[in-house]
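MODEL INPUT / OUTPUT PAIR
PAIR INDEX: 1
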Amino acid sequence: MKLFVKGDIDGFFGLALDNLVQVLLIEALMTGVLGFPRAFVYSRVLPGVAVSLIFGNLYYSWQAKKLAEKTGRKDHCALPYGINTVSLFGYVFLVMLPAKLSAEAAGLPQPYMAAWKAGLVACIGSGLIEFAGAFVAERVRRATPRAALLSTLSGIALGFISIGFLLRTFAHPLVGLVTLAIILLTYFGRVKFLLGLPGGLVAVSVGALLSWLTGIAPQGAATLAPGLYFPVPAVSGILEAFSGEYILPYLSVIIPMGLFNLIGSLQNIESAEAAGDSYPTAPSLAVNGLGTLAAAFFGSCFPTTLYIGHPGWKALGARAGYSVLNGVFFTAVCFSGTFSAIAWAVPVDAGMAIVLWIGIVISAQAFSATPRAHAPAVVVGLLPSLAAWGAMMAKTGLRAGGAGTASNPFSDKMIEMFHSSDTWIEGAFALEQGFIFSAMILSAITVFVIERKFAKAGASSFIGAAICLTGLMHNYSVQQSDTVMNLSPHYRFFIAYLAMGLIFVSAKWLTRPEKEAE
């Protein structure tokens, strides 16, 4: 099989655009939401992103070539690989932003450094789970109901990705709705533009043009940063992160997100096999984990993953070369600083329809890829994530209104004010802490109840009770400008989950199936 064929050009544009949107988001969220200096992002973070991309892209290209040698076929397509969208949003809003707010409340200088260290810890944790799990991923997948995994991932996609970018779409309707129309035509309508132009390329190009014409872009003067930005090991940052308080508070995010990345990548390998490309599971997953670890070692806080859509890239004619081109492109633009010109000329708004589409697809998959009878369990799994997003929005609104300062801190009185409008905000704060765990547990319980496996439903409830004893779920404390996880036993929720479990365990003797009852 040749290293480059014509179809690799189309594949490269599609895969590079996916990753380009992710890198644009990294730059925008780190400088805008987290307050990182642009110089830090371009010199310390983006080179780490490039290392992780070139590492995995070259391996999966080589893997496709080896498979071609083994089978004698020339149509094998490399596994698509890049930055994990859900982890990007999850780590920014659930790990890095809380760490930054805590540092600000404590009066620490350069609070963005706390966000960076917390992000490094989360990325390393995800990488270790992905690497170690490569050898047991199949067992984990079989032991966990699919609805419990996908609905939790779907909740994050729906709340932290889809709704956020839907609001941005309607804030800039001309750019947002026109690019959304192009994406809907291409990906849901399954049509192609004339001259074979990729739909994603058309959407981003039109979005960038409209952004300039409507004054959305450029934002400020050109902030070009040409130069050589070679990756620098983040050893000191990692050591400080692991010696500080950046591990335990975020385990409730790190562990489930690592498992999701692992299982999601496994499912994408299965998708490739269904398309005729049978890649070995363990090394494919292990290299993905190593790519994530490489990202963290060189300063990036964002895990990598095997992308969905392998059959689509293969149908475009992509083989091994599109993966090489993707890795080389991002290495060139990140190491040379020319990505600063791209970020200035192409605002996030130009690609937000693609991110919105990703969120929609992930959310829809929770329903389409699970048994129809498990649909209620999917809905149950969505609710904690949406509650967590709502809690974050409520606190953001309070801070925008002047609360969360030394003179006007968050307090229990704030909760009482919410009560006056019949808003039980403490329930949202409780769900926010460890919401990934609670979503998985509640969804799994619902699946087992639907299947009348009451003993397993009880066991899931007891697991929830045990997690509440660690403080990794539902327990929070009110700080000056945020509500944060309180790592001490929460006995009220422990007793509640224990009581749930006892009800399910005793159902064998206290209930009978409906037909028998009739």
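PAIR INDEX: 2
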Amino acid sequence: MKQNLKMIFEYDVLVVGAGHAGCEAASAAARMGAKTCLITMDMNKIAQMSCNPAVGGIAKGQIVREIDALGGQMGIVTDRCALQFRMLNRSKGPAMWSPRAQCDREKFIWTWRGILENTDNLNIWQDQVKEIIVEGSEIQGVRTFLGAEFRAKCVVITAGTFLNGLMHIGRNKLPGGRIAEPASPLLTESITQHGIRSGRMKTGTPVRIDKRSVDFSLMERQDGDTDYHAFSFMNVPRKLKQLPCWICYTTPEVHEVLRTGFADSPLFNGQIQSIGPRYCPSIETKLHTFPDRDQHMLFLEPEGETTNEMYLNGFSSSLPMDVQIEALRRLPCFRNLMVYRPGYAIEYDFFDPTQLKHTLESKVLSGLFFAGQVNGTTGYEEAAGQGLVAGVNAALKVAGKEEFILQRNEAYIGVLIDDLVTKGVDEPYRMFTSRAEYRILLRQDDADMRLTERSYKMGLATQERYDRMNDKKQRIEALIDFAENFSLKAALINPALEQIGTTPLQRGCKLAELLGRPQVSVQNILPHIKAFQNEIAKQTEGKTEAEREEIVETMEVRIKYSGYIQREREMAEKMIRLENIKIQGKFDYMNMNNITIEARQKLTAINPVTLAQASRIPGVSPSDINVLLVLMGR
């Protein structure tokens, strides 16, 4: 008689899904000492860039620098795979500067896979999870379709768009998490049966184009930056051939063709009921929302260093494929267009993030964490930031250590998570600089000085990273100290100021005061102050050109914007006082007649940890907060 044997694997942390959230979660947990297993349906699609093979952008670039500062891998992988790098918003203040890189899609996958395969304490298992194992109100592990059982103290769900994923091209529907990849059934039901709420969202992706069919002479060329900027503070050099992107514009004729497909559009015929990202709309949504616009900008971007495949940014669509192709062929640059595949929309399950703690652990099931698009977000960067925080906290929970939470004045990742768990989502959440009230404190240039020490102390950031940060910090502060104490004589510096085009001095001043002028920069004043040249040379001795420029740039930003930085610090300190007032478990909100009914309902549903979190809940007014303050005083 044959005995049925069950394969049971024992781990500390399980990570389900190997997208950008899953990779950061697994890497972080393993490097913090937790025995970790990453379960993925396809090892050849690890960290797949499902949509545009680009990393960063407005506010997203700040998140990637924060991930890097904390010891995550996304910035390092991006720098190794970058085909084009640009610092966006350079015409604005430094709080708005945002790095962005176009990447080689295949190299991105294999670079990440190489990192994961060579990380101690981390195993990879190729399989599909069908259910979670729960005892009481605690997670115990997962079961897979291959019949394996994994036991662990913590499980991180990072399934992206695969949970009951359904793709749409015109009236055609097919299940899948990405084109040609299967959806993940059963797992959502396994999770929601324990009282965790789910919903449906949608996103989309555009047509992929064969560049051999494009007339680039009829497009506007856009080259990347050639300066020292990068994502990783470890100064990983860009080694791939740098490639241009290309710009063109739709026309009224293109719009006419697109409108012929509206009757078959799943967005307009009722086929899709879920809500898509407001800030990354499909081309048909743009035409519907802005009917008077004659043109919309399109970016044609490379998918790899050697492939002919290109990505048409700005043309996300779920219209019938013949309509997509015919419309694009009305543009002169695409008159001979050949495509690899059409654009499509995809619907998928997500879980209500207000049921999460700030650690991204479920309030319902102990040891169960969620990160990425399953929390209602969109974007690789938002997913990766969540993944790192979830992975870190899973490892800390296993070790019985204090949880890791990022505050809103510490990181964009902190803003992201606080928004999710406090306000929830009714559309895919995308990070913008406008969502952060302390933007000048959360600049991309100083993410390492904000976050690396905290990461180092909890065991994620390496000694090398910590030492580099401290060395950089000391050199920057030495330059600032020099500028604040070095005196300039009006008669000696005025000829230079007149040359620069700024008002001459009436009296002597400190160098820092002069650098505070909008017209004056280190670049245009440095040739005229020999002592300043010598001090910069002294403080950057032995550094590469990239490291030198990074030190000088951060020094200049801190001097030029010192007043704004100090004001935001003071604002943050006031809010921190409210963050220190713990209110969770101290009130029966539904029986508090001196606050509004809406506030009672929202406070009961969210159950905020602190008074500051309560103040950010939509529907809770300042007068409601004052009532809670008075009651806390009693």
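PAIR 2 NOTE: The longest strand covers residues 198-210.
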